[in-house]
Structures are given as structure tokens and as C-alpha cells.
Design a protein that fits this description.
alpha/beta
Length: 252
């Protein structure tokens, strides 16, 4: 008698067409775990890519200003020091700590002979008051000769300050005074707009931590604006004809 071999006899249990044996208690398939790991890895890669994309302009600003940022003791000399406007204290006549720190450093630069004239650039019609009048009065009271101070009332943001300093007031080399969190952006803008600019870090005595944190955080979106303004070469909010007043101040 011929015996026909059963093909299922050589197959592992559960592969002969019948039901698979039950998994032992506590056992789970490795496939869902591997799938979860892959999803997490992909999410991390995507997240890291987004962070780099968002931070790219800020990194570019840092790279462009590298080598041009100085503590006060290492500040080079330049004909002009540019002070960027900022908020005034209630009443609109005195600077808040941010602006006071900038003005104090600008005053010392002039007294130490590292700069001859000061260009104060801000908003004459600012929400907190006339920044130009307040900055000028503070510098004069601190001992800077009035004839060596020039005010630009239309430096409505950092880009406009640098653009107008170059185009309207003829600045080609300058020291920029601002806090270290803002200085890389200011230096990058001015240098890209034709000014051989060096940044000098200002103090911020009395600044609250929350204020510093808020202003530090805003530098990331502000760097995107730097890129946009430079790529589009936008004109300043207010355009003016060349003005020799700063050169006259230097000649005093």
C-alpha cells in the first residue's frame, strides 16, 4: 500500500492551515514597537529641521557680525557713534534702562576720544515720547557738546537707522552702541548697507529679567525681517535728501 505523505507534517505548528497557537501571556509582537520607534525618529528629524529653518536667519546674523562685536575696553575708534533709539520712561523725557545704558556708553566713547560725533537715531513721534529730544538732552547733560550731536528723527527701526545713516548722513565708518542681544542684528544691517560698523556692548542696569527674555526672544523673528529687508532692498519708511549736518559736526 502506498502512503501519501502529509505535507503539513513538516510545517511548524500553526502553518498547516489551522489556527496559530496562542501567544504566551505577556508577549507582544515587536512590529508595533518598531513602528512607533520609526515614527518618533521621523518626528525628531522633522522637528530638528524646523528648528534649524526657523533659526537660520538668526545664525546668519550671528555669523555676519562675528569679529565686529566688542566689549568697551576693546572698542576701536571711529568718527561717529550711532545710538539706536528705545523706549522712554513715563513722561517722555528720560530714558528707560535700555536706552540709558546705550547713552552712557556713547558718552564715554566721546569722552575717551574713541568717537567725535554722536548720531542719535529714533522716532521723534514715538509712543513713549520724542526719542531724539530725550536722547540729545541726556547726552548734553552728561557732557557731550551739543554741536557734536546729530539727531535722525526717522530711524524708525534698525534697518532705517542704518540705511539713513549711510544714505542721508554719509556715515561710512561707525561704532554702534546697543545691548548685546540686539548688537549682532544692528552690526549685520549696517555692514550690509555699506557702513564699516563695529558694535560696542551697552549696559542694561536695572533691566528686568522678563524684559531681557522678551527682547532676546524677539531677535529670532527680527532676524527674518533683516533677511527680508536686505533681500528686497526696501527703502526706509522716510526718505530724505543727503544732509551735511553730521559732517559739519565732525568738522567742529
Amino acid at each position: 500500500m502506498t502512503v501519501t505523505p502529509d505535507p503539513s507534517a513538516s510545517l511548524p505548528p500553526g502553518d498547516a492551515g489551522g489556527p496559530r497557537p496562542a501567544e504566551p501571556p505577556g508577549h507582544s509582537s515587536p512590529r508595533p514597537a518598531r513602528r512607533r520607534r520609526r515614527l518618533v525618529q521621523r518626528a525628531l528629524v522633522v522637528g530638528a529641521g524646523l528648528v534649524l529653518l526657523l533659526a537660520a536667519p538668526a545664525l546668519w546674523v550671528r555669523a555676519n557680525s562675528a569679529g565686529h562685536l566688542h566689549p568697551y575696553d576693546e572698542a576701536p575708534e571711529a568718527p561717529v557713534v550711532i545710538v539706536f533709539g528705545a523706549q522712554l520712561a513715563p513722561g517722555g523725557t528720560q530714558p528707560m534702562p535700555f536706552l540709558k545704558g546705550r547713552l552712557d556708553v556713547a558718552t564715554q566713547l566721546v569722552k575717551d576720544g574713541k568717537a567725535s560725533a554722536v548720531l542719535v537715531s529714533g522716532d521723534r513721534a514715538g509712543a513713549s515720547g520724542d526719542e531724539i529730544a530725550a536722547m540729545t538732552a541726556y547726552l548734553v547733560a552728561a557732557g557731550v557738546p551739543a554741536e557734536h550731536i546729530v539727531g535722525d528723527p526717522y530711524g524708525l527701526d534698525s534697518y532705517d537707522t542704518c540705511k539713513r545713516a549711510h544714505d542721508v548722513y554719509g556715515v561710512r565708518r561707525a561704532l554702534l552702541v546697543s545691548q548685546s542681544l540686539h548688537l549682532p542684528r544692528a552690526v549685520t544691517l549696517c555692514r550690509r548697507l555699506g557702513i564699516d560698523a563695529s558694535g560696542v556692548a551697552a549696559r542694561c542696569d536695572g533691566c528686568r529679567r522678563v524684559t531681557l527674555a522678551k527682547n532676546t526672544a524677539r531677535e529670532v523673528p527680527a532676524a527674518w525681517k533683516v533677511a527680508y529687508d536686505l533681500v528686497t532692498a526696501r527703502p526706509p519708511a522716510v526718505s530724505s535728501a543727503p544732509d551735511p549736518v553730521l559732517q559739519q559736526a565732525l568738522d567742529e
